[in-house]
Amino acid sequence: MMNADSSYNMRSKRFYGLKTTCLVWVLLVTGVSCELPTRTGEGQAVQQPDETETAAPPENEEYVMVTTAVTMPMYVNHDQAAFKRWGEKMGVKVSILGPADWDVPAQINTLEEVIGTRPTGILVNGTDAALAQAINKAVAAGIPTVVYDSDIPGGRHHAFLGTDWYEIGRMQGEEMVKLTGGKGKIAYMGILGLSNMEDGFRGLLDVLAVYPGMQVVGKYDDKASVEEAARITSDVLAAHPDLAGLCGFDSNSGPGMALAVKELGKGGRVKITTVDWEPEHLSLVSQGIIHMLAGQKRELFTWYGAQFLHDMAHGTNRLSGNDERAGITSVPEKVNTGLIRITRENVALFLP
Amino acid sequence: MELLEIHHLSKSFPGVKALDDVSLAVRSGEVHALCGENGAGKSTLMHILSGNLNPETGKIVFDGKELRLKGPLDAFRSGISIVHQHLSLTDTLSVAENIFANRQPVTRWGLIDFERLYRESSVLLERLQIDVDPKARVGALSAGQKQMIEIAKALAREPKLLILDEPTASVTDKEVTILFRIIRQLTTEGVSVIYISHRLNEIFEIADTITVLRDGVLQGTWPARDLTRDSLIRLMVGRNLQLQEFASHRGEEVLLEARNLSNGYIPALNLKLHKGEILGMAGLVGAGRTEIARLLFGADPPQQGELLLDQQPVEVTHPENAILNGIFYLPEDRKTQSLFPHLSIEETLFSARLTGKAMTGKVKRFRENAAAFVKKLRVATPDTAKKVAQLSGGNQQKVFLAKLLLGEPKVLIADEPTHGIDIGAKHDVYNLLRQLAAEGRGIILISSELPELLILCDRILVIRDKKIAGSLLRNEASEARILELAMGSN
Amino acid sequence: MRKILEDRIYSLSVLLIVIVVVAGLVYPDTFLTADNFRQLLLNLSIDAIVAVGMMILLIAGVFDLSVGSILAFAGCFTAHLMFFYEVPVFWAVGAGLAASGLLGCLNGYLIAYKGINAMIQTLAMMGIARGLALMVSGAAIQNLPYWFGAIGQSKLLGVQMPVWYMLLIVGVFTFLMSKTVFFRRYYYIGSNEVAAALSGIRVKRMKMIAFIISALLAGIAGVLLTSRLGAALPTMGRGLELRVITAVILGGASLSGGVGRIPGALLGALFMGIAANIMVIARVSGYWQDIIVGIILILTLWTDQSLKKNYE
């Protein structure tokens, strides 16, 4: 660090000379080799891999799921379980990658690193629109790419399977109107800042807007935590003892809202609709605390998503001489797997 | 009867033989002084006796049994208590809780029995004639009082052997008297005391037996009456030390002047420091000497009054201003106020150049400079890349002085510069201060060692209760006169 | 041998080389490719930039838990200005960085001058900045101007820009921290604050500046990440603070201050990035990565402690 060196001055002059030369070179090379990103809308020709419809079944077949929050029980029990089952049935290798926590940039990093390993197909959990570029990179690299759960605008993936979150919102809104007779105060919560949730909120509000008797008292961020959802619920109920209904949009909203309502002894009187059908949700429906669940068919996302990848890789359904050159995809482009409506009437059928 | 016998003890660290075949014996009820310069092996020996270090070879027989210590707790249980130079008290807890740290009396519910804790503490404090409330927070006590509490803590375990490592380093003379009375009382009860100190007067006053170590090698054990001050110094240092004759370099010109300078702590300070003068500051611990130094240095900046340097008013609101004006301060506590534990000698010296507006200035290379200073001050290491923390106290202090000298001080305020350093290093510091005065710099020397002030200073200010209680010229000053002023008695 | 073990820059470099060689032998086609290295460097560049600021703070004996949130805020605020107010890219980026600097200044002022504990203050700021990010971005902001995207998506010599910014920042701060008096002061402050003040260093001011630098670097990282993703997500940088502190400690810093060098921050981030990359290539699930990094962190500090003990 502070090593004295009598020849320092001389050396440093030479050093600076060298540096200047380097700098000039760097600037030259920079000028020549700086690439700007392509503008969106400038039709970028998808690079065509040269091997075409030889389409013998690929060797070392491997399908990779890239998700985020890989430890989340809902993902593990539905998406990942179905994907693994599919792999076993087909006798191919399947891998599940992504950060342990909800971290979209880390999911993007993982996806971009996976591309370099050239798997047979990539199944991407559409957690956020920011995935678009990475998805396009995978497509440009010639890897069959399917997105599930939420669609990614701007992404050129080959197919999408998922639920329409706007519909989830609408379904909850309509149920709420039915449950309350079109009159009363409503609060709703979820993870603020996630685009699919915001779509859901919009669907809910669009329905409620039609009924002047429905009054929205608040939108809350339960940060995907049961405790937070319960705290918000008891606060809201303290402020509005006449609250008619609560709508939830993430997996933990329902259990949290139900907990607070039960503790205040208002179970059944405050109407609750929410998403997902984990065992806990189902038991709350049979207890009459939660009135309706808007469930997703998550198993279908990943099962058929994987199947699409497989069919693309194997060229199962050829629609032209060369589908890629023709610019078409030989699998369905957008699949709405639909919703499951679970109420007290049919809940027994979903219980294990 | 021998309470403690040490046979052929050796211990080495990478590159140093800290103890080399040392044997000694301590009798019941005697005060056994252990002398030697820093680095002589005293601390290593103490660490072995207190269970912090294991010897490589040799054995220790204590109270008739061979002693094998696995840790400090073992030492306590065997009846050895040690009072370390660095305090082991917790500032945020009460005196009583510190005395009975980790072994507070408990009620039958297993909870701390505070009533008994305070009662037993006050009995102990009374016996030792320490005038401190057992409920007082230790943080609020003076350094001297803390030292007494530390000793009380060691005695609360009723040891057979009490080891005191520099117990008087931060204690006033009055407290030394109390301490000595306690030690004498203990010895009549059959307790043995190993006493380590750099203050030779104290050693001759209290010790029955003296053992001298040098560079880890035993020089011998003698009855105290068989040694003289000079012969002891010779044994410790291995050479004769001579103080130069006193010579005043005080010039006519006033270098630094404080006019009614005050902050929240020090009321209206007036003083003049001449060029080439060594101005002493004596006083009891807690009299406010360090606070005056901090006021002049801007560490506790003045709120009122004027400070003039070379007859020009200067604004000193932060040590940065003081240093830029050439006023430097050598703090009292090396470990907490001077030492950068991670940094080398060279980097520590460099901290002299960190002030001012040098926002982008490149770090100058200055190993040669550093090496020159290291040589000049006789720091016992050839390698300036060595960490300062690995040096002995005296050598550390020399490095800190060198750092200040690199800044070319006009005024140097040295706060207890020889505190806890060995005799050889002390003499080096004295010679250095004299040399600086001869170069026309002004020096304010704060010291609790009166002989030191008397041999070095042109003038001695005695501080009492945050004020200057008196100013003694060299020819009027004596230990008695200074003490009179310091304690406020007639 | 001891010297190599004791200097983290050496020991970590050696460890990295060993890992790269082993991984290269096991996965020659997927790991040891230029594409993969370009990608992993890009992925760790954001962390590394933030790590430089964290390294300075740790050298000075403090740390900042709010960097992840400040990163998100800077990105979202910049995007907000461009998207809703059509502020030109240059000014929007400037405003985003200024805003992050302001949050850092607030952190530094309250910690250095008002004596609030660094952990508490930056924990509070972590919540505040995350809330602000959420407020200005809503779900996420997309369709950002072309030239904003160009900041992080352009390539130089085939390598995407954030990597170059990272190298530039690491280079500049390595130089500053080792060669200039001003930055060198942080070693003294971190080693002994009292002694530093008595050596004439304005400790409080220097600490505040360190927080501003750290926040500014987090802001730069936020703008780069937003530009690279083409979208401002309020969830960006979640858990970043602990990841970065881990990287910096791996790189030779200590929570008690006074030690560490800037290249260590890069090496620490590089280590974490390569570890993550190998896990992806080996198809090891995400939580294993956290476990393995945790184990390595403990092993590193353990080795350190044993070496120290040996020495004393």
Structure description:
The complex is a heterotrimer of chains A (352), B (490) and C (312). Chain A contains eleven helices and twelve strands. Chain A has 352 residues and is of the alpha/beta class. Chain A folds into two domains: 62-163 and 298-337, Response regulator (Rossmann fold), CATH 3.40.50; 165-296, 3-Layer(aba) Sandwich (Rossmann fold). In chain A, the strands form two sheets. Chain A has a six-stranded parallel sheet with strand order 2-1-3-4-5-11, with helices on both faces. Chain A has a six-stranded mixed sheet with strand order 7-6-8-9-10-12, with helices on both faces. In chain A, α2 packs parallel to α10 (298-314). The model of chain A is unreliable at 1-13 and 41-54 (pLDDT under 50). Chain B has 490 residues and is an alpha/beta fold. Chain B has two domains: 2-237, P-loop containing nucleotide triphosphate hydrolases (Rossmann fold); 254-487, P-loop containing nucleotide triphosphate hydrolases (Rossmann fold). Helices cover 33% and strands 24% of the residues of chain B. Chain B has 17 helices and 20 strands. In chain B, the strands form four sheets. In chain B, strands 6-7-8-3-9-10 form a six-stranded mixed sheet, with helices on both faces. In chain B, strands 16-17-18-13-19-20 form a six-stranded mixed sheet, sandwiched between helices. In chain B, strands 2-1-4-5 form a four-stranded antiparallel sheet, with no helix packed on it. Chain B is globular. Mean pLDDT of chain B is 82; it is low at 357-363. Chain C has 312 residues and is mainly α. Chain C has a single domain, classed as Orthogonal Bundle (ABC transporter involved in vitamin B12 uptake, BtuC). Helix content of chain C is 77%, strand content 1%. Chain C has helices at 2-6, 8-26, 34-59, 67-84, 89-113, 118-137, 146-153, 161-179, 181-191, 193-198, 203-229, 240-250, 262-281, 286-311, and strands spanning 155-156, 159-160. In chain C, a hairpin with a 2-residue loop joins β1 (155-156) and β2. In chain C, α3 (34-59) runs antiparallel to α11 (203-229), α5 runs antiparallel to α6 (118-137) and α5 (89-113) packs antiparallel against α11 (203-229). The longest helix of chain C is centred in the last third of the chain and has 27 residues, at 203-229. Chain C starts with a helix and ends with a helix. The chains are: A alpha/beta (352), B alpha/beta (490), C mainly alpha (312). Chains in contact: A-B, A-C, B-C. The interface between A and C is large, with 48 and 46 residues.
